[in-house]
Design a protein that fits this description.
This protein is an all-beta fold. Among the domains are: about 60 residues, no CATH class; about 180 residues. The protein is built from 1 helix and 51 strands. It has a 40-stranded mixed sheet that branches. The chain has a 4-stranded antiparallel sheet with strand order 47-46-49-50, with no helix packed on it. A 3-stranded antiparallel sheet has the order 2-4-3, with no helix packed on it. The radius of gyration is 26 Å and the shape is elongated.
Length: about 550
């Protein structure tokens, strides 16, 4: 299997230094190209919010699939045909049959059809040829083990024949083939389990019922090119230790553990999850997508209902396109670096909508190195935590902080709308060091207790407004200029009193009026960059601020 791995070193020097690490090249200005790359960065200590001396070692996440991985055509006449039947399994050369256990011992093309009520397929090929398995209406259940175990192969490709319906179901307890490895793990550990690279393509369907633990799992790279795939799992639905790549297909994943997961964190260029397209529906008690390094989404339609994070990357999360709808989550997005370049993002979160943090606790499952990553709620400023929005459409409905970074937040473009918290201990925008707005449309509404406005490093005009009272969800807020032009019309879903708004349409020296349900609440004149207007309450514009950070404590005008 081919992979495009791009190693480079970036040295950028202006006035200071900034520690960065992520899936895309980042600069203090917050600009990020659509190159998807994981980086590990060393830097000097810095005290400057203006820019960076950065040394970055990075690898590009750009799947380069082989022709064999992409090709789902086949000629049955040129395949070794295996007909499955409980009474007798018929097969030709390259296949060992022991009752209802079928073992593939060499590379080649194998065509399967039929049903086994208690059997399994084992791939154990020592040669360097690809093992390709064509499934055409295959239904295999194992009552005491995994029904599909790839023990050894150069690479295995599963092709789902057109219009076929295929199903694999494992036992809830493995008693027939458990092997304890040197690292005390158990193999196989999933309904479909591979110790080597595994690719799935074709236009047929595949249903995987992982009653023991995981649904589909590899110890190397897992690639889904296409197919209609449904996974129900007691553990994770899809797990690729080295990486998971989804190029297309229709995936419906229901799991107790993470929906899509990659865990390799101690090997260069691995541990990532890449989504290039397809339709993905995830329902899970844990993270929707979880990566030990980075998550990159270039396209596709994702719907996620998660008990923990919607999407989590220990190092970074980069959105370059696609439609992502996090219907339920504890935190919508979480990573050390979060970058949104394009796409449409909708997030519902019971805590933070997005959280950029370097925090590590033992709440999350152990990765390969034994480190656990789970931030959230950390109050110390962190240089490496960066949240950047360069484009796209973002809507966040969060009970905790709307957009939260323990370090830097950069908004350079796009449309961002935040239905923030109703509690006074959280803010619609929350940052540890700096919030710089240079472009786009930004609106965040919420409570009055912890309002953190953009800093004077911003270059686009911003309003920071305290309304005269709290308004209930469903009240429509508009902002009009002195010429009667409406520059904002928004209906928050929850109670709100504070408003942060930034737009290229705001003109310094012009008078603006905020109306709620058609009634005037406050009128003011815009100044340069940051305009404070209306009421203040408690510690607005700084309540709960972190001592010693670089955020400016800008108060509200009385």
């Amino acid at each position: 299997m081919k992979r495009k791995i791009f190693i480079y070193m970036l040295i950028s020097m202006m006035f200071g230094s900034l520690t960065l690490s992520g899936c895309s090249l980042s600069k203090n200005a917050g600009n990020s190209s659509k190159t998807s790359a994981v980086s590990e960065t060393d830097s000097e200590d810095n005290n400057s919010d203006d820019s960076d001396y950065v040394v970055t070692e990075s690898f590009e996440v750009s799947p380069d699939l082989s022709n064999e991985e992409l090709d789902d055509t086949f000629d049955k006449a040129e395949c070794i045909v295996i007909e499955l039947n409980d009474d007798a399994v018929s097969a030709d050369k390259g296949v060992t049959v022991d009752g209802t256990k079928i073992t593939i011992t060499k590379g080649g093309n194998y065509y399967f059809t039929g049903t086994l009520s208690d059997g399994c397929i084992v791939v154990d090929s020592e040669d360097d040829e690809i093992v390709r398995l064509i499934f055409d209406d295959v239904d295999i259940t194992s009552k005491d083990q995994s029904p599909f175990f790839i023990k050894q192969a150069e690479e295995t490709i599963i092709t789902l024949a057109s219009d076929s319906e295929n199903s694999f179901t494992d036992a809830s307890e493995y008693t027939g083939s458990e092997v304890v490895t040197e690292d005390d793990s158990v193999e196989p550990n999933a309904c479909i389990y591979s110790k080597d690279d595994l690719t799935i393509n074709g236009s047929g369907s595949l249903t995987v019922n992982g009653n023991y633990n995981n649904g589909i799992q590899t110890k190397d790279d897992l690639i889904i090119v296409s197919g209609d795939i449904t996974v129900n799992a007691a553990g994770s639905a899809i797990k690729g230790k080295d990486s998971v790549t989804v190029m297309d297909g229709n995936l419906v994943l229901d799991s107790t553990d993470d929906g899509i997961k990659s865990t390799r964190d101690n090997k260069d260029g691995k541990g990532y999850v890449y989504i290039g397209g397809g339709k993905i529906n995830i329902t899970t008690d844990e993270d929707g997508i979880n990566s030990a390094t980075c998550v990159v989404i270039d396209g596709g339609n994702l719907s996620i209902s998660a008990g923990d994070d919607g999407i989590h990357g220990d190092i970074s999360l980069t959105i370059n396109g696609g439609n992502i709808n996090v219907l339920e989550s504890y935190e919508g997005f979480e990573a050390t670096e979060i970058t949104i370049n394009d796409g449409r993002v909708l997030i519902n979160a019971s805590d933070d909508g997005m959280n950029a943090t370097v925090g590590i606790t033992d709440e999350n499952e152990e990765s390969d190195s034994g480190n656990n990553f789970k931030g959230g709620g950390m109050m110390d400023a962190e240089e490496g935590a960066i949240l950047t929005i360069n484009g796209g459409y973002v809507y966040v409905n969060a009970s905790g902080d709307g957009l939260d970074t323990n370090g830097y937040m950069y908004i350079n473009g796009g449309e961002i709308y935040v239905d923030g918290p109703t509690s006074n201990g959280d803010g619609s925008l929350d940052y540890g060091i700096d919030l710089k707005v240079t472009g786009g449309t930004v609106l965040s509404v919420g409570s009055m207790g912890m309002v953190e406005p953009p800093t004077s490093s911003s270059t686009q005009n911003c309003f920071v407004i305290g309304l005269s009272m709290s308004y209930g969800g469903g009240s429509t807020m508009t902002i009009v200029d002195s010429d009667g032009n409406e520059i904002l019309n928004f209906t928050p879903k929850k109670t709100f009193q504070s408003v942060i708004f930034s737009s290229s349409e705001i003109e310094s020296g012009k008078t603006y009026t905020v109306l709620v349900d058609g009634e005037e609440d406050v009128e003011f004149t815009a100044s340069d960059i940051i305009t404070n207007a209306g009421e203040s309450s408690g510690g607005m514009a700084g309540f709960g601020g972190r001592g010693g950070n670089m955020r400016e404590n800008q108060g509200m005008n009385q």
